[in-house]
Amino acid sequence: MTQQNDASTETEPQEVPQPAEATDAPEAAEPRESAAPTEPVESTASSDAAAGDEADESSAADEDDQTEDDQTEAAASERGEGGPSSRKEHLEREGEVAADFLETLLDIADLDGDLDVDIEGDRAAVAIVDSDEGRVPRRLVGQGGAVLEALQELTRLAVQAETGERSRLMLDVAGHRAQRRADLVESARVVIDEVKETGERRSLEPMSAFERKVVHDAVLAAGLTSESEGAEPRRYVVVLPA
């Protein structure tokens, strides 16, 4: 019994140094704190992304047509109407619905006019033209085409209510859009020549989305670039030098 007690007392001092050895371990973990300086890189990347978003937003206002094209193609794909013939049939259907709606509207308002239905590119196109009974009232165009734009939107909604899909149908009254397109192309050519001659950017008057697209197409065909600036309804096209 006495020997056992002596043995236990001899082993007790060996357990004392163990906690002291464990205190040195945390020093190995300290270098992890020095790996933090990555935050400036994240802030730079986020600012670049924000700048990219602003650029996308400034160009998106004039890409409505392309966006609507993508949406229309996606809807057609879901219906299994990816083929050209089925797409044509769908556009013809849009034109028929629009013509019926406009004919009823003209009858209710007791206004003269015939309806021409066609397909232009990837859009149904309907035009109210002069008839044998009389001319189309120019008040259906309105100042700056404001009434025409409203009538076109109303017609698109009528088509959407019938077909269940958003319509990109184009409406013209008494050849207003066709004449306006020709005038815009001519104005764009004058500005394009000035930009090529002076090497300086030039701005055009505020326009609707349809009119801006006409100008953008004319500038692109001339080998220059253009962009839109400002906010609706005073958004305008700027022609840039090469």
Question: What can you tell me about this protein's structure?
Answer:
The protein has 242 residues and is of the alpha+beta class. The protein is 55% helix and 12% strand. The chain is built from eight helices and six strands; from the N terminus they run H-H-H-H-H-E-E-H-E-H-E-H-E-E. The protein has helices at 2-11, 18-22, 39-60, 64-78, 84-109, 146-163, 176-198, 209-221; strands at 114-120, 123-129, 170-173, 202-203, 225-229, 236-240. A three-stranded mixed β-sheet has the order 1-2-3, with helices on both faces. It has a three-stranded antiparallel β-sheet with strand order 4-6-5, covered by helices on one side. Strand 2 (123-129), helix 6 and strand 3 form a beta-alpha-beta unit. Helix 5 (84-109) crosses helix 6.
Number of helices: 8
Strand order of the largest sheet: 1-2-3
Q: Proportion of β residues?
A: 5-15%
Specify the biggest β-sheet: 3 strands, mixed
Order of helices and strands: HHHHHEEHEHEHEE
Brief sketch in words of this structure:
The chain has 242 residues and is of the alpha+beta class. Helices cover 55% and strands 12% of the residues.
Question: Which SSEs are present, and which pair or pack?
Answer:
Blueprint lengths: L1 H10 L6 H5 L16 H22 L3 H15 L5 H26 L4 E7 L2 E7 L16 H18 L6 E4 L2 H23 L3 E2 L5 H13 L3 E5 L6 E5 L2
Helix pairs in contact: 5-6, 7-8
